[in-house]
Amino acid sequence: MSEHGQGATIWLTGLPSAGKTTIARALARRLAEEGHRVEVLDGDEIREFLSAGLGFGREDRDTNVQRIGFVAELLSSHGVKTLVPVIAPYADSREAVRKRHQAAGTGYVEIHVATPVEVCSERDVKGLYAKQAAGQLTGLTGVDDPYEEPVEPDLRIAAHEQSVAESADAVHALLAARGLL
Ligand SMILES: Nc1ncnc2c1ncn2[C@@H]1O[C@H](COP(=O)(O)OS(=O)(=O)O)[C@@H](OP(=O)(O)O)[C@H]1O
Ligand SMILES: Nc1ncnc2c1ncn2[C@@H]1O[C@H](COP(=O)(O)OP(=O)(O)O)[C@@H](O)[C@H]1O
Predict the structure, then answer these.
(1) Ligand with the closest atom to the CA of 86
(2) 18: annotated binding-site residue?
């Protein structure tokens, strides 16, 4: 274990505009203040570089998620708390990432940011729901593309029913309970 504590991957899965990135950044701030080494692998940033050229069909999403899982495990195995606010809509793809971590003996938790699609589409941070409704975009997760809800996530957050700080605190408490801090 490094002097900054144990590494672990914290994957936040959920629909676009569910609050994955906002909660991840709040938790990242808290963990950094506590002296942990932290990285956030944000879906949008990864798609600019590591996954440049990939689209939103099933195969490309799976490739994207496996690449991110690979990098996350590497970082986490070196003592970093790696926060991953990435949709990851397919259960088998998420399971493969969990197995990669298990095989390496690296901590891993899956958080379902379970904001209902009605709330997400009202927030519509990037205007994707409006575009889909206007017929300018197809294949939007949770609307006309699948989102396979985690059946047994390590934690499910009703993120629309509590504050960002409360959600971040809930994940923090889970990490403490699992001995991952
Ligand atoms: N068709 C479609 N479906 C879903 N999401 C879309 C789409 N087109 C663009 N976007 C935006 O892409 C952002 C990153 O997606 P991810 O890499 O997290 O998705 S995936 O796990 O590969 O499915 C994702 O970011 P978040 O809103 O932060 O979830 C979306 O804003
Ligand atoms: N209780 C809440 N929890 C998380 N996000 C919230 C909450 N209430 C409002 N929001 C807002 O919802 C939006 C969620 O966007 P974002 O975090 O980018 O979602 P995602 O990464 O899942 O696409 C942000 O603008 C955030 O400020």
Answers:
(1) 1
(2) yes
How far the first Cα of the chain sits from its last, in Å, is: 11
Cα–Cα dist 29/143, whole Å: 32
User: Atom 1, ligand 1: which residue's CA is nearest?
Assistant: 140
ipTM, two decimals, is 0.97
pTM: 0.97
What's the gap in Å between 100 CA and the centre of ligand 1? 23
Residue position matching structure tokens 């989102």 = 147
Give pLDDT tens digits along the chain (181 positions).
556 678 999 999 999 999 999 999 999 999 999 999 999 999 888 999 999 999 999 999 999 999 999 999 999 999 999 999 999 999 999 999 999 999 999 999 999 999 999 999 999 999 999 999 999 999 999 999 999 999 999 999 999 999 999 999 999 999 999 999 9
**3-state DSSP helix/strand/coil % of the chain, to nearest 5:** 45, 15, 35
Please report the domains of the chain, with CATH numbers, ordered by start residue: 8-177 (3.40.50.300)
* Joined tokens for residue 178: 């699992």
Coil, strand or helix: which one is 6?
coil
